Q: What sequence folds into this?
């Protein structure tokens, strides 16, 4: 006699309490074996595959793509195969149905009108009329659709689980354009008034996935952490020369790679954190204690179509400038491809955001809890500044640091920024400094 195993959603990240279903890889009636992928879910850090812990047959799925599932809630129910082992000994994610597992549906259910609810057995990759009411598409794709006047509901999605891609939207836009711009009749006729683009109706979409988590984190930071922010202008003359010298050396030794300014920023920050430990710390008001981190995990803010990712560069103090450059590029590529792991997004103790990478001059960075500080760097640009009392043109690097005022005072901020400025204005010093 077979029994039913209720598989509860495990914590697929680090201390997560919920995840969004991106796509199902099985349907009701599908046979499954241990480690077979059941679904892809999105956390605030990455897209994660959830494997089956048992052998059996799927009897129910909790929700549709786009739904939010709480950690510990029933994710799928599996009829165990007679004679097959139940949950593996190292699995603590589920138990027999009715044995105390949370069987309520995921948060966010009820978004689909009853008439449009697909049967639970419908594949998650269904398209057309069988797709969920909320079209699966990234924020960037939605923005493009709005700009081109394309109704996402009418666009067949070619991505995973029927997700609409930028290419799908562009194809739909080209099709509409070719119809609207048919040749004018040869017979002379009064010019018809040019019709403005049709007004678009408001689109209301659920706040989901990475953007939802970013919103929660930013509100938490701004409401709970008293920020102080200080600014500096760094004379980047020697920094520009140092980068040029490194890239010239790489070229002369036959290496087809160049470094940006980021490796210098990472190295300077790592040294400053070693000298100013309050900036490499975390304040826990609940337990009334401060943790001074022994390691320096430098979070690198990376902009993607889905939102801002912050992969963590670990052990940067043991890397050369070229090694930092390679590791940072690899992490950024993984973030943009959504292949980055939770481990690569964890362990940060301080964050760097580079306003200059998208042409920004300066900004006011917001701290990422539970960290105590964050540094933002603007775009290097020539400016007229006084040099020994005489106006001169110099490349200037704007710098902003925000810190938790509960832990860090103005004097601490001044010390940190003075050291950071000194290291960036004289990069040779950062090569000689010990960590």
A:
């Amino acid at each position: 006699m077979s029994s039913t195993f209720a598989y509860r959603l495990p914590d697929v990240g680090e201390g997560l309490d919920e995840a969004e279903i991106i796509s199902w890889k099985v349907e009701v009636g599908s046979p499954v074996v241990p480690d077979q992928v059941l679904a892809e879910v999105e956390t605030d850090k990455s897209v994660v595959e959830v494997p089956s812990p048992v052998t059996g047959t799927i009897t129910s799925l909790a929700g549709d793509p786009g739904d939010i599932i709480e950690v510990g809630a029933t994710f799928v129910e599996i009829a165990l195969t007679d004679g097959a082992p139940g949950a593996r000994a190292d699995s603590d994610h589920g138990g027999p149905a009715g044995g105390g597992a949370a069987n309520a549906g995921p948060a966010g259910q009820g978004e689909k009108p009853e008439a449009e609810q697909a049967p639970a057995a419908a594949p998650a990759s269904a398209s057309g009329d069988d797709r969920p009411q909320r079209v699966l598409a990234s924020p960037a794709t939605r923005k493009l659709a709005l700009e081109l006047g394309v109704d996402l509901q009418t666009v067949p999605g070619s991505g995973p689980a029927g997700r609409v891609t930028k290419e799908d939207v562009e194809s739909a836009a080209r099709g509409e354009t070719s119809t609207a711009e048919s040749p004018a009749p040869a017979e002379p006729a009064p010019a018809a008034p040019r019709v403005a683009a049709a007004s678009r109706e408001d689109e209301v979409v659920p706040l989901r996935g990475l953007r939802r988590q970013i919103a929660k984190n930013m509100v938490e930071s701004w409401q709970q952490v008293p920020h102080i922010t200080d600014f500096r202008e760094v004379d980047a003359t020697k920094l520009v020369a140092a980068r040029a010298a490194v890239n010239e050396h790489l070229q002369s030794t036959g290496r087809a790679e160049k470094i940006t300014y980021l490796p210098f920023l990472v190295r300077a920050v790592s040294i400053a954190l070693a000298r100013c430990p309050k900036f490499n710390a975390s304040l826990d008001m609940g337990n009334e204690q401060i943790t001074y981190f022994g390691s320096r995990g430098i979070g690198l803010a990376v902009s993607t179509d889905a939102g801002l990712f912050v992969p963590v560069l670990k052990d940067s103090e043991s890397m050369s400038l070229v090694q930092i450059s390679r590791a940072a590029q690899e992490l950024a590529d993984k973030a943009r491809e959504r292949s980055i792991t939770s481990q690569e997004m964890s362990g940060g103790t301080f964050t760097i955001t580079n306003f200059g990478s998208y042409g920004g001059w300066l900004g006011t960075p917001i701290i990422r809890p539970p960290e105590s500080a964050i540094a933002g760097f603007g775009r290097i640009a020539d400016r007229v500044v006084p040099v020994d009392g005489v106006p001169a043109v110099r490349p200037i690097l704007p710098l902003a640091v925000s810190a938790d005022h509960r832990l860090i005072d103005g004097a601490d901020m001044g010390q940190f920024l003075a050291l950071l400025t000194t290291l960036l204005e004289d990069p040779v010093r950062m090569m000689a400094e010990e960590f």
